[in-house]
């Protein structure tokens, strides 16, 4: 049997989306890698902007996460170079930093960044960004049929206090009777035990 006759597992033919993380902090790269892998992304990392530019000469990730402050070239300069290169300019670049405020966000967007995230990204921040840039599919809106079935669901009638009391009181009486019988049995057992203890002394 030749290789072309072998059964094909189509799941293995699915190409994973790829993300590139550029950060000179190893711990930051590890944390972000774990968050992205939860979305079934294949993750590559580089510890410098120069390393990222070299990687992009041969590779085309689906999204780039770029730190701001790094040893050597900073993230803003790297984004500018990426966006000037027509071969990679369409790749979404999300910058992240520990700095807060509109000044940095404006500078990042002016350099060509497609989005700005906080350094301490939450899983929700990442999910929203990946969906927004179509790296992963978003949640589908409920279909018209599902929405119709929800509106057609039977309405439970409201009950008055008298209705509720009428339904609950028989149950309470039954439970009270069971409790009285149980306590009577326990008291009788206790009385027998105490009597036996007195005789033994």
Kindly describe this structure.
- With 201 residues, the protein is α/β, with parallel strands linked by helices.
- The chain is 51% helix and 12% strand.
- A five-stranded parallel sheet has the order 2-1-3-4-5, sandwiched between helices.
- Helix 3 packs parallel to helix 4 (75-84).
- Mean pLDDT is 80; it is low at 1-6 and 8-13.
Topology:
Blueprint: H1 10-13, E1 18-22, H2 26-37, E2 42-46, H3 49-56, E3 63-67, H4 75-84, E4 93-97, H5 102-111, E5 115-118, H6 123-132, H7 144-151, H8 161-200
Parallel strand pairs: 1-2, 1-3, 3-4, 4-5
Q: What fraction strand?
A: 5-15%
Rg from Cα: 33 Å
Q: Average the pLDDT over all residues and give the rounded result.
A: 80
Oligomeric description of these chains: single chain
Strand arrangement within the widest β-sheet reads 2-1-3-4-5
Distance between termini? Answer: 93 Å
- Structural class of the helices, strands and pairings? alpha/beta
**Helical residue percent?**
40-55%
> What is the string of SSEs from the N terminus onward?
HEHEHEHEHEHHH
The largest β sheet comes out as: 5 strands, parallel
Shape summary: elongated
Q: Please mark out the parts with pLDDT under 50 across 5 or more consecutive residues, or reply none.
A: 1-6, 8-13
Count, helices: 8
Instruction: Please provide the count of β strands.
Output: 5
Task: Name the descriptors.
alpha/beta; elongated; single chain; disordered N terminus; 201 residues
Give a short summary of the structure.
This protein is of the alpha/beta class and 201 residues long.
